[in-house]
Structure formats: structure tokens, C-alpha cells
Design goal:
With 283 residues, this protein is an all-alpha fold. The chain has two domains: 17-158, Serine Threonine Protein Phosphatase 5, Tetratricopeptide repeat (Alpha Horseshoe), CATH 1.25.40; 166-276, Serine Threonine Protein Phosphatase 5, Tetratricopeptide repeat. Helix content is 69%, strand content 0%. The protein has helices spanning 17-20, 28-33, 35-48, 52-59, 62-65, 70-82, 86-99, 104-116, 120-131, 140-160, 166-184, 188-201, 206-218, 222-235, 240-255, 266-276. Helix 6 (70-82) runs antiparallel to helix 7 (86-99) and helix 8 runs antiparallel to helix 9. The longest helix is centred in the middle third of the chain and has 21 residues, at 140-160. The radius of gyration is 22 Å and the shape is globular.
Length: 283
């Protein structure tokens, strides 16, 4: 696991969301009086022993009955992060923050997850939110470390693109986020427009070429996909995602006939798409 995730969490507490949701009878006191309390305690022990899969398995049913206990989501998010499943970790950290937006620990966890996913824009938004909060004195050093991680991450981005200034680099990161969001929504045309804009400003954007290639792959446009993946690798030969995508493309070209029709293999290609959508699209 990379080092951006800090194991920060608070004791379980019921938020105001319970009352806002219409007065659910399932309160924290009732939760702590039944078997779920023991389940949570077991999950904490699993976390201490680095048995992260067991944490997730033991906690996953609690939100079905008690959806307003933020620390359950936080604990699951930390476990996913330790398993390098950062998309899942971020989903759970967001749920925790949605329940208790005033709790600083959830926002620190989101910073780490966004950095692991390469999303500097969202990480900076979380830091801005943290800067408005009252952080306990004993966590100030940790907060300083979070800020340093974000600054270092962005400095590395700028160092790799010395021809871009701070504002333009930030804009392109935001456009990359938008393009990735459109991919996840299967809105190919809007995604391509975002990535093509990035290339018009930064012709050495391996991430933009790789993502355009992915869209062509999903459409069954293999020649264009190969051109884009190879362009990404020409810019950055060690690009792990472009390398994986090109290997997938070459496998598809081997198993599908030369004259395949997209309509005939649409179900198969959509199966490939399902496996890749939501994956790590960044450089």
C-alpha cells in the first residue's frame, strides 16, 4: 500500500442524519445493546491484526440496519485502502463524511484516497475543507503532513510538465477528472472532447491519449485504440495503464476475427467494458 492513507478514525457516534431521515427507531444506543456492537469490536481487532478482508466481511451488513454510523464506513474504507482498493475506500470515506461532514478524520482519509487515485484536484478541495475545521492539537502534525503530501504531489506534477504553469496544470487536472467521469457514465463524446482539449494544450499528456484509446477500444475501433495507446507509451514508456490496455487490445485482436462486426461482438466487448469502467484511468 502506498503511503498517502493515514489510519485516522474516531469512536462510533450517531450523527444528526438520524433525525433528518425521519426519526428512524434504530439509534446508536440500541445498536450498542445488540450483537452488532460485538461485531464492531471484532472488526476493530481484525484491523489491529491487519486482517482487512475480515473487517469488511464482518461490517458489511451493519449499514443495512444502521446506515447512520459513520465510523462503520470509515473502518471499511480504511480496510479497503490497506488492500489497495482505493476506489472502494473512497466510496466508503465519502459515505462517512456525508453522515458526519463536521468530522475532520473523514476528510483526511479522503485526501489520502484521492492522492492514491491521482486526483489532486479533489484532494485539494478536501484540504480546503479541512482548513475550515477545528483540528485537535494532537493531530496538527498529522494535518501538516497531509498538506505536505498534497503539495509534494502537485510539485511532482509541475516538475513533470515544466512548460505548464500552476493554474494551467490545475485546469488540465480538472478536465481530466471531467473526462474520466464521462467515461464512467459511458458518455464517450463528452469524454473525448475533454481529453482532446487537454491534448490541444499539452500534447505530451499520456493520460489523455490513453483514455481516448480506451474509448476507441470500447467502441470496437481497434486501430485507433492501438494508435492512442502507443502514443501514450511513446510519451511515457513505463505507463502501467497504457501498457495493460495495449496488452488487452492485442489479446482481443488475437481472439476476434479480422473482419469482426462490432454488432456481432457487442455483448463481449461490453463485458470487457464493464470490467474496466471504474478502473484506474490516470497516469
Amino acid at each position: 500500500m502506498s503511503g498517502h492513507i493515514m489510519q485516522v478514525r474516531v469512536e462510533p457516534e450517531l450523527s444528526d442524519s438520524e433525525a433528518d431521515a425521519g426519526g428512524s427507531p434504530k439509534t446508536l444506543s440500541k445498536w450498542k445493546d445488540n450483537a452488532y456492537d460485538r461485531v464492531y469490536e471484532n472488526a476493530e481487532r481484525f484491523l489491529e491484526r491487519n486482517e482487512f478482508e475480515k473487517v469488511i466481511l464482518s461490517l458489511r451488513k451493519i449499514p443495512e440496519d444502521y446506515p447512520y454510523i459513520a465510523d462503520v464506513y470509515s473502518l471499511m474504507g480504511l480496510s479497503y485502502a490497506m488492500l489497495d482498493r482505493f476506489e472502494d475506500a473512497l466510496t466508503h470515506f465519502k459515505k462517512a463524511a456525508g453522515i458526519m461532514p463536521e468530522e475532520w478524520s473523514h476528510w483526511i482519509n479522503m485526501v489520502g484516497a484521492h492522492l492514491e487515485l491521482g486526483d489532486i484536484v479533489e484532494a485539494m478541495k478536501c484540504v480546503d475543507r479541512l482548513n475550515e475545521m477545528e483540528i485537535p492539537l494532537e493531530m496538527q502534525a498529522g494535518m501538516d503532513e497531509v498538506r505536505e503530501n498534497v503539495n509534494r504531489f502537485f510539485d511532482d506534477k509541475l516538475a513533470a510538465k515544466p512548460y505548464l504553469d500552476f493554474d494551467k496544470c490545475l485546469e488540465l487536472e480538472s478536465r481530466l477528472d471531467a473526462g474520466i467521469a464521462h467515461i464512467k457514465e459511458r458518455d464517450w463524446e463528452r469524454a473525448i472532447r475533454e481529453f482532446e482539449y487537454i491534448i490541444s494544450v499539452d500534447e505530451k499528456s499520456e493520460a489523455a491519449y490513453d483514455n481516448i484509446g480506451l474509448i476507441h477500444l470500447f467502441r470496437g475501433e481497434f486501430d485507433e485504440a492501438g494508435r492512442c495507446f502507443r502514443k501514450a507509451l511513446e510519451i511515457y514508456p513505463e505507463h502501467p495503464i497504457a501498457t495493460m490496455n495495449l496488452a488487452l487490445l492485442e489479446t482481443l485482436q488475437e481472439i476476434l476475427p479480422d473482419d469482426f462486426a462490432y454488432s456481432e461482438y457487442r455483448e463481449y466487448l461490453e463485458g470487457v467494458e464493464e470490467k474496466l469502467i471504474g478502473a484506474y484511468f490516470r497516469s
